[in-house]
Task: structure prediction
Amino acid sequence: MTDFFTSVPERIGFEGPESDNALAFRWYDADRVVAGRRMEDHLRFAVCYWHSFNWDGLDIFGGGTLDRPWLGGSDDELGAAKAKMAAAFEFLDKLGAPFWCFHDRDIAPEGSSFKESAALLDEMIDEAAGHMERTGTRLLWGTANMFSNPRFQAGAATNPDPELFAYAAGQVRHCLDATHRLGGENYVLWGGREGYETLLNTDMGRELDQLGRFLTLVVEYKHEIGFEGLILIEPKPFEPTKHQYDFDVAAVHAFLQRYDLVGEVHTNIEVNHATLSGHDFAHEVAAAFAAGIFGSIDANAGDDRLGWDVDRFPVSVEQMSLGMYEILRGGGLGSGGLNFDAKLRRQSIARDDLFHAHIGGMDTMARALLVAAELLDDGAIENARSKRYAGWDQALGQRILGGEETLASLHDRAMNGDEPVRSSGRQEALENMVARYIERAR
Ligand code: XLS
Ligand code: NI
Ligand code: NI
Result:
């Protein structure tokens, strides 16, 4: 145990919406049963290692501002990694988040060779196993960082040089083994640099084939070692590259179909990535369920006026309620969870700011869950939707869908029939209805 977060009590408790205690939950009540499940089991919160413990506030215009003593070039890199991990698990334990997520390079320093890096990771995985056992924390997913090191400047699987593909494949194998060892519930691939800066030097067809091959190798290996978690791709349209191949859920679905990976690979949907690709968060969730490729969520928020991945903590109950609604409607998070892929603003330099950020995010998501559960339970949205499509359950709709009508038979029908009757889409009424659920959710 360390005592890095000394100003924070042993455990953040639930005190209810009337509480003014800033270091308490007002909505997230882990044991409260909502729609047949404990809140903790519905929401499956995870803390991400990278933004919370591995980032010191550096941005493109300035250096680190945050108090992260384990960062910043110690002679004893492994000792620093262990101090960082002790603080991370102190945080997880005090917050009461059931899960964590990591990149291999977040938790272990990189050695001077592949072999050395692998050994360092193994040592830190042992260390993590001890902390997990002690605190009861579980691993939502692991992932390999194949974008920070200069060797990946031209991508990993989509690199023009097969040596890089080979290196990346080795790295994923090692990280998947490590994830498996820690009982990880999923494994994520975010294609950090799997895209291009300019088409002038890019052969898109080749790069897509390479990526298809890479994922197939990962899937084959997963089965070989008996890893039962989901393999997840995290769509993102751009940043750092100008174009990323896993642009959005629809692009990922098309890709999976093309390389025969549907059923094997699912999606980790990030709220801020959804908005960057020009969609609402709820859209991406609904698209994933409709295609049968929903996996997990990176919960965060963008900024309406900033066009990049600003990774704020979620604060909008409305945005999150609509996303949570689609999640519940689709059957819930399954083996996925809500990972806060979110970071503090760089002026938030007090140690307890990390708690305030997560408490706010967890309360926002918990409130969104309450709204979504009520909406679903009352059938408020579902009734309006099914009424709107009622015609498709009747004779004409059934004949069209059943293949009993042709273009010619429909032409005859139009020729001899009346003008179709229009009905209201009721958008504003539906929006007001959602607002009422948000106001009333308790
Ligand atoms: C970056 C991604 C990244 C993944 C994990 O934008 O969100 O943090 O979640 O590699
Ligand atoms: Ni992101
Ligand atoms: Ni993410």
Notes: Residues 190, 234, 270, 298, 341 surround nickel (II) ion (ligand 3) (CB under 6 Å).
